[in-house]
Amino acid sequence: MQSKQSEQSDIFPISAEFDSSIGDIIQKVGAEFGAIGEGFGPSDAEVTQMSHYYRLDNGWGYWVATLNGDVVGGGGIAPFNGSDSVCELRKLFLLPQSRGHGLGKRLAEQCLTYARQQGFRECYLDTLSTMTSAVRLYEALGFQHLSAPMPGTEHNGCDVWMLKQL
Prior knowledge:
This is GNAT family N-acetyltransferase. InterPro entries: GNAT_dom, NAT_camello-type. Residues 12-166 form the N-acetyltransferase domain. By secondary structure, this protein is an alpha+beta fold. Helices cover 25% and strands 28% of the residues. It contains 4 helices and 7 strands. The protein has helices spanning 19-32, 50-53, 103-117, 132-140, and strands at residues 9-13, 61-67, 70-79, 86-94, 122-127, 144-146, 160-165. A 7-stranded mixed beta sheet has the order 1-2-3-4-5-7-6, sandwiched between helices. The longest helix is centred in the middle third of the chain and has 15 residues, at 103-117.
């Protein structure tokens, strides 16, 4: 679905002023899909200070998405378990009212572009099968399903694991 002409969207790197909004969105959307507690991304310690962890100068990146001036979500990339060759697409969450505007695709593409610029050769993600729109997006972007999580994943509550060659 294309954005309406009157709607304005933007994507930009996270800064401290957006930590609270993004943390709230990650928690809210996580709860919407049952991703609550240990083994799910919304419970990670970094959620309360995303800008502290996701700094473009350290190989981690997180981008904030706005729609009509409101913060509606974000998505990030980070090395997978400190790897130089494998990164992870992390915490790509959008509020319900912002879905269907192409923001998820734009966020994912921004993350993958950054990953390539950082020299990563593969991108891993884990998610939930109940996040059907997200899974379809990842498939459309070329992610392939794995039969099990990559060794070392922190999110053992997820039931979909995917990998993309960069």
